[in-house]
Amino acid sequence: MKPIKLCSDIIDRRDINALTRWLIKMPQLTKGSKTLEFESKFSEYLGCKHSIYCNSGSSANLLIVSALKQMGILKNNKIVVPQVSWSTTIFPAIQFGLDPILCDCELDNLGINLSHLKRIIAKDKPAAIILVHVLGFDSSIEKVVKLCEENDILVIEDTCESLGSMTSGKMLGTFGFASSFSFYFGHHISTIEGGMVCTDNDDFADVIKMIRSHGWDRDLSQDSKDKYRQKYNVDDFDSLYKFYYAGFNLRSTDLQAFIGIGQIPKMSYIVKQREENYYTYRENLTSEIWLPVLEETQNVISNMGYPIITKNKREVYKRLSKNKIECRPLVAGSMGLQPAWSNLYGESPMVNADIVDKYGMYVPNHQDLTSKDIKRVCSIINEETQ
Q: Are 297 and 366 found together in one domain?
């Protein structure tokens, strides 16, 4: 019986051979020219002005929230976060002293529940929202952005699960003020570990670069360096160790950037395969199974894993496991029920998110999955949900 893995590494033998040939030349391995090249190529692929490479998608979210806070961009400390999301989407808001407000999900696409968001806006008047494009779905991004623009709310996109998805001809991750991406194993592309912050705002990009590297200005353009050095009366001698923001060391390496450069040409194939797999699932699962609904404007679904909501979740899991098919809970379930949240704020149940928590799971979708593999997965699910 052939095992079917939940994820498949996109780093292949050709990548390893290319990396080996490069390493023999004894290049710089810490952050340098390859990082800049990877950032430039990623910006070109995504269609954004700035991409800043860091050591994980979680760090990308941390950098974004830190920069928002330190720059004084937020009109208040209230920030909306999705109940169905990931730990390190929400935790930076807590760690930086913001007031996170949980928002329920839509069961159709697992994104932000618009009705609940409207009630939150009317009551709390938040400064920002971090939304998650769950498993490639667009989280009604155009409707969310319109609503937020009308209410002077900053939109941040966590796009770690949705690289390559498009709505109205635009890549997810280009609708808001800034966005985050992850290059961990099993995501659309991999740099072993890694993440990216993307934005069109010049000042914000500069601050992200500084916070990524201790708070100094070494990664900035000369014009940007001059601006900060003139403001604080810093000469060339002291400039190397002047810290303008409270930073971290969240840099990645040129070694990993080299791998990333080799991943970008694969993106069209990866997205095509994941989208084809998504529709193969839809065609082969019975009407008894909950099916996600795409927004009419979503052109491309770069699906990271196929979501299922079924009352027979435990039975489906046992049958799949018995047949050597991997599966897992649907993202992190309902974040308001997680101990890390309830220890601070008490349990925060939500109608739809709690359904996802109780009955949700997802099954494999990756570029190495065959139509035969998917039909085998669907057959088992259909049998257990009749």
A: yes
